[in-house]
Backbone:
DNA sequence: GCAAGGTC
C-alpha cells in the first residue's frame, strides 16, 4: 500500500470492445482519458476509481484473444521440409506472433508502472488460458505485481461494479489444469492436423482432376480432429439415405361422420409389412364392420417451456426459426452482446443460478409494444403465470444462460437479423419463467371385429408460455363425443399402403446436435467447423439448411473408412479429452499421457499412409485421374501377356496402377482401350513363361498371382497361376467377388453404402470406358456384366438404374435394360412385368417372380404367391406395383347382411380379388 | 499452404 497515493492498476480484457465497455461503466464516462497503446486496435483507457474505498488510478487495456500461438520450429514449417511423419516429434515453440508483439509491448510497459494487475478475461476455459499468458508477460516486466481476477458475465453496470468490488485471486489449480489441457490439445491438434493435411493434400491434389472452379494451387485438403468427424456425420447420414430401401407397408384406416363432425381412427397395430396378413385382418373387419367404443379417456396434458438458452440452443433455434446459419447467428449475437443488449453468448449453461434477479430482467421488458403486456402479466402475482425456470442440467460455472440485459424496442443500427435474434432471446427468457401450456386430451378406442382403433383430440385450455413463445405451436383438434359401449358403422374403412422413407439429410440444427453430443469443438467454434467444410469443398448446404457431402468429402471419408480407421469418427478426440481429465484430476501425469498419445497417433498416421491405396481408390470412384500423374505413374511390372485382340496392332502388358491395382492393358492406349481389369485383392502379380493351352489366339502367357488372404474367401488359394485370356474361372470369380480395385466398389456393400449407393456411385465414376473382363463389351464392369448369372451379388446387382431413375433389369438375351410395364389383361391387371425393348427378343418376366428368384425383400410373400389362384397376387402388389393398392381411396360400402365367403371380394363377390381393389367399389 | 482456440 502506498499511503495516500492512489494505486496504479493495470486492467486487461480479452478484447478491445470489452475494455471500452468496462472502462465506460466503471468511470461512468467521467474523466475518462483514452490514449493509444502500441497496438492500433488496443487502446488504453485511464480513469480514477475507488476499489473498496481505496483510490485507484485505473489503466484499462486489452488483448485480442490468445497472445501466444504454437507452431513447429522454422525448419519444419515448409511443406516439403520434412516427412509429415516427423511432425509427431518435431520441436514446437510457443511464441507471441508478429502481429501481437505490439500488444505484448504495451502490456510490458504498462505493467512496469503498476502495482496491481486485474484480469478481466472471459470466464471460460480459454479465458483462463489467456489470463495465464497475460500474467506470464506482465510478471516478466514486473515481479512485484499484485494479481487479481475479476469475474463477470454481462457487460452491464450491476455485474461490472460487483466484479470489481469483489476481486478474487486467479485460481492457480484451475488455471494449471486448464493450461495443461489446452496445451495438450493444441499440440495434438497441430501435429495430427498438419501431418494428415500435408499427406493427403500432396497425395491427392495433383493425382486427380479436382475441378472446383478455382485455382487449385491453393487447394488444401485439410484434415482436422474437429472438421473430419463433423464431415463424418454428414457422410454417414448421406449413406444411410442412399442405402435405404423403401419397404411397402399396409394399414387400415377408419373414419366416422356424425353430427359433430368427422373422426379419424388409426389402427393400433400401426402398420404391417405383410400384405397377406393385412388383407386377412381387413377382410375380417369388413365382414363385421360394427364399431364398439371400448374406452374414452380424458386427460390433462402439459407442454413445458424450453430450458434457459445456451449457445447451442440459440444456434439451433435461429437456424430452425429464421434459417440463419450458426456462423451468422454468433456474429449477430456478438454484436448484441457488445452493445450490452444480451448476456455473453458463448455459454454452455442452461440453468439460472439462485442469485439471478429474474424479476428485474422481466421488469425491463414491460414497456415493449409487443411483448410488454406479457411481461406485465408475468409480474402480476394474481395472474399466476410465473414459474421458476427449469434446470437444463448444464453449467459451465462461468456464464449464465443467454438472456436480455438491456431493454430495446429496436435500435436504428440493427439489421432484421439483430431484431430477430434479440426477440428470440427475450421471448425465450420470458417463456422460461412462464407456466407450461395446458391441454385437455381425449382418446377414444374402438373395436371392429376384434381389431382396435383409436382417435385422439386436444383442446388447449391455457396457452401460457405459448402466448409469448410464438416460435412453438401445439396443434389442437376437436373430436366428436363418444361414450363407452356406443356402436356405429364406420363411414369409411380402407386398406391403405405406404412406403418407408429414408431419414432426411442433416440440418444445421441436427449437425450441431451431433457435434454437441460427441463433444466436437466448443460453443465458440462449432459454427467454424461447419463453415470450414463448405470452404474446403467437402460439403454443401441447400436452401433448406441441409447438408450433403460433395464427391470430395465422401471420397475422403470413404478412403479412411476403407482403411478400417475411424479417423472420421469422433472417438479419437473423446479419448484424448478423457485422458486430459485424468491429468487434471492428477491420476495421470501430463508428460506420460502426451507421449503415449503421440506414439499412438504417429503409429496410426504411418499405418494410414501404408494404406494410402484406399484413399486413391476412393477418389478414383468419383474423379478422373489427372494428366499430371497419369500414364507415367503406371508402374510396368513386366512384360507382354499377349497380342491385343482388339486393335491387333499392339501388345497387352501387365501393369500396376499407382493406386496399387493390377490390370493388363493395350500398349496402343489411348487409341486402343482394350484392358483386362484384375481382382482388387492381388498383392503381387508376375508374368511367367507358361503358355495357356486353351486360349486363342496364342500365345497367352500365364501370370503368377498372390492374393491378400483377408480379401478373398477362405476356400480360395492365396497363390494362383492364372490366365487372363478368359478361360480362368477362378480369376473370373475373384474379380466378381473382390471387384477390380479403383474402378468399382467392393462386391459386399460396406457400412451404410447399399445397393442404391453403389449404383449411383458407379454412375458418377468417370473412368468406366474400359471393357468388361467377362464379355469384353464396353460400358460396364465384369461384376455388373449382364452375360453373367446373378450369383454372388444377389438380387441387387441384377437390377440396373435406368436414366430416368427407374429400377430395371437387363434382358436375358441381349443385355439391354428392360422396360417395366403393367399388365392390363383380365387375369393379371395391375401386375408388373419386365420386357425387352428390342423387337427381336421375346424376353419377358413377371416382376414378382423376379423377386422370388432373387430373394428380394418380398420374401415373406414368395411362398404364397406362386399359385395363380392365390388372390393376394391379383392386387397388383409388388415393388413398384402399388397401383392396385392406391385405388383404395374409395369408401367402404356398408354391410348388407349378405353372407360372405372368406375367399371372395366382399363388394362384388368375385373370388379373383379382395374388396380393397375391387373395380366395382364406390360406384 | 496445415489444427483448433481465442478475436479484429
Residues:
Amino acid at each position: 500500500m502506498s499511503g495516500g497515493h492512489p494505486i496504479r492498476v493495470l486492467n486487461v480484457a480479452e478484447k478491445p470492445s470489452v475494455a471500452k465497455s468496462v472502462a465506460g461503466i466503471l468511470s461512468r464516462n467521467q474523466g475518462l482519458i483514452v490514449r493509444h497503446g502500441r497496438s492500433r486496435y488496443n487502446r488504453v483507457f485511464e480513469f480514477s476509481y475507488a476499489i473498496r474505498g481505496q483510490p485507484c488510478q485505473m489503466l484499462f487495456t486489452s488483448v485480442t484473444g490468445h497472445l501466444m500461438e504454437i507452431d513447429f520450429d522454422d525448419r519444419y514449417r515448409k511443406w516439403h521440409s520434412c516427412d509429415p511423419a516427423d511432425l509427431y516429434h518435431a520441436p514446437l515453440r510457443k511464441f507471441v506472433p508478429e502481429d501481437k508483439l505490439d500488444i505484448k509491448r504495451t502490456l510490458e510497459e504498462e505493467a512496469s508502472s503498476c502495482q496491481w494487475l486485474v484480469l478481466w478475461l472471459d470466464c471460460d476455459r480459454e479465458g483462463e488460458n489467456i489470463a495465464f499468458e497475460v500474467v506470464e508477460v506482465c510478471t516478466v516486466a514486473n515481479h512485484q505485481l499484485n494479481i487479481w481476477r475479476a469475474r463477470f458475465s454481462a457487460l452491464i453496470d450491476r455485474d461490472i461494479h460487483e466484479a470489481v468490488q469483489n476481486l478474487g485471486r486467479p485460481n492457480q489449480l484451475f488455471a494449471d489444469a486448464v493450461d495443461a489441457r489446452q496445451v495438450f490439445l493444441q499440440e495434438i491438434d497441430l501435429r495430427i492436423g498438419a501431418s494428415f493435411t500435408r499427406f493427403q493434400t500432396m497425395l491427392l491434389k495433383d493425382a486427380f482432376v479436382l475441378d472446383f472452379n478455382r485455382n487449385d494451387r491453393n487447394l488444401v485438403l485439410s484434415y482436422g480432429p474437429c472438421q473430419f468427424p463433423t464431415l463424418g456425420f454428414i457422410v454417414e447420414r448421406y449413406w444411410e439415405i442412399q442405402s435405404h430401401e423403401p419397404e411397402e407397408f399396409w394399414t387400415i384406416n377408419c373414419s366416422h361422420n356424425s353430427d359433430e363432425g368427422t373422426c379419424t381412427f388409426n389402427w393400433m397395430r400401426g402398420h404391417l409389412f405383410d400384405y397377406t396378413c393385412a388383407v386377412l385382418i381387413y377382410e375380417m373387419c369388413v365382414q363385421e364392420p360394427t364399431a364398439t367404443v371400448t374406452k374414452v379417456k380424458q386427460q390433462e396434458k402439459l407442454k413445458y417451456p424450453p430450458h434457459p438458452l445456451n449457445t447451442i440452443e440459440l444456434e439451433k433455434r435461429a437456424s430452425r426459426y429464421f434459417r440463419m446459419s450458426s456462423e451468422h447467428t454468433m456474429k449477430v449475437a456478438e454484436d448484441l452482446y457488445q452493445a450490452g443488449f444480451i448476456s455473453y453468448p458463448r455459454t454452455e449453461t442452461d440453468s439460472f443460478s439462485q442469485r439471478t434477479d429474474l424479476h428485474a430482467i422481466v421488469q425491463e421488458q414491460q414497456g415493449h409494444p409487443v411483448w410488454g403486456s406479457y411481461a406485465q402479466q408475468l409480474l402480476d402475482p394474481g395472474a399466476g403465470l410465473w414459474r421458476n425456470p427449469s434446470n437444463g442440467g448444464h453449467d459451465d460455472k462461468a456464464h449464465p444462460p443467454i438472456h436480455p440485459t438491456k431493454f430495446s424496442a429496436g435500435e436504428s443500427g440493427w439489421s432484421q437479423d439483430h431484431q430477430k435474434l434479440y426477440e428470440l432471446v427475450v421471448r425465450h427468457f420470458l417463456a422460461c419463467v412462464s407456466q407450461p401450456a395446458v391441454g385437455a386430451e381425449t382418446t377414444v378406442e374402438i373395436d371392429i371385429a376384434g381389431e382396435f382403433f383409436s382417435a385422439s383430440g386436444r383442446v388447449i385450455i391455457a396457452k401460457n408460455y405459448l402466448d409469448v413463445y410464438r416460435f412453438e405451436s401445439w396443434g389442437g383438434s376437436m373430436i366428436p363425443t363418444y361414450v363407452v359401449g356406443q356402436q356405429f358403422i364406420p363411414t369409411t374403412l380402407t386398406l391403405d399402403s405406404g412406403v418407408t422413407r429414408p431419414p432426411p439429410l442433416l440440418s444445421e440444427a441436427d449437425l450441431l446436435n451431433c457435434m454437441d453430443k460427441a463433444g466436437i469443438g466448443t460453443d465458440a467454434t462449432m459454427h467454424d467447423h461447419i463453415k470450414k467444410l463448405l470452404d474446403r469443398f467437402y460439403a454443401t448446404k441447400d436452401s433448406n439448411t441441409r447438408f450433403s457431402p460433395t464427391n470430395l468429402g465422401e471420397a475422403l471419408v470413404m478412403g479412411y473408412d476403407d482403411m478400417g480407421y475411424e479417423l472420421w469418427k469422433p472417438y479419437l478426440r473423446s479419448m484424448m479429452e478423457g485422458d486430459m481429465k485424468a491429468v487434471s484430476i492428477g491420476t495421470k501425469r501430463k508428460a506420460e499421457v502426451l507421449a503415449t498419445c503421440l506414439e499412438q497417433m504417429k503409429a496410426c498416421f504411418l499405418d494410414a499412409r501404408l494404406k494410402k491405396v484406399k484413399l486413391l481408390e476412393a477418389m478414383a470412384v468419383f474423379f478422373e485421374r489427372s494428366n499430371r500423374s497419369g500414364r507415367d505413374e503406371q508402374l510396368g511390372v513386366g512384360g507382354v501377356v499377349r497380342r491385343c485382340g482388339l486393335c491387333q496392332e499392339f501388345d497387352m502388358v501387365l501393369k500396376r496402377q499407382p493406386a496399387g491395382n493390377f490390370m493388363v492393358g493395350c500398349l496402343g492406349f489411348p487409341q486402343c482401350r482394350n484392358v483386362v481389369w484384375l481382382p482388387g485383392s492381388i498383392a503381387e502379380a508376375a508374368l511367367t513363361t507358361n503358355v495357356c493351352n486353351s486360349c486363342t489366339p496364342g500365345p497367352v502367357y500365364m501370370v503368377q498371382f498372390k492374393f491378400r488372404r483377408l480379401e478373398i474367401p477362405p476356400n480360395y488359394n492365396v497363390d494362383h497361376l492364372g490366365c487372363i485370356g478368359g478361360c480362368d474361372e477362378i480369376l473370373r470369380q475373384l474379380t466378381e467377388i473382390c471387384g477390380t480395385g479403383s474402378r468399382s466398389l467392393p462386391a459386399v456393400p460396406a457400412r451404410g453404402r447399399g445397393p442404391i449407393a453403389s449404383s449411383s456411385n458407379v454412375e458418377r465414376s468417370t473412368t468406366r470406358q474400359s471393357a468388361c473382363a467377362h464379355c469384353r463389351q464396353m460400358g460396364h464392369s465384369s461384376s455388373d456384366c449382364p452375360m453373367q448369372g446373378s450369383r454372388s451379388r444377389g438380387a441387387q446387382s441384377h437390377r440396373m438404374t435406368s436414366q430416368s431413375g427407374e429400377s430395371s433389369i437387363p434382358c436375358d438375351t441381349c443385355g439391354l435394360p428392360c422396360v417395366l410395364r403393367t399388365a392390363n389383361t383380365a387375369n393379371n391387371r395391375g401386375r408388373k412385368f419386365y420386357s425387352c425393348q428390342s423387337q427381336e427378343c421375346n424376353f419377358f418376366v413377371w416382376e414378382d417372380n423376379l423377386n422370388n428368384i432373387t430373394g428380394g425383400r418380398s420374401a415373406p410373400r414368395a411362398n404364397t404367391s406362386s399359385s395363380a389362384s392365390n388372390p393376394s397376387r391379383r392386387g397388383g402388389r409388388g415393388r413398384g406395383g402399388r397401383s392396385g393398392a392406391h385405388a383404395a381411396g374409395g369408401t367402404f360400402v356398408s354391410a348388407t347382411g349378405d353372407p360372405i365367403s372368406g375367399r371372395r371380394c366382399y363388394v362384388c363377390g368375385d373370388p379373383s380379388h379382395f374388396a380393397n381393389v375391387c373395380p366395382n367399389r364406390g360406384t
Q: What stands out?
A: Residues 104 and 137 of chain A are 7 Å apart (CA to CA). The domain at 7-170 of chain A is CATH 3.40.50.140 (Rossmann fold). The longest helix of chain A spans residues 172-204.
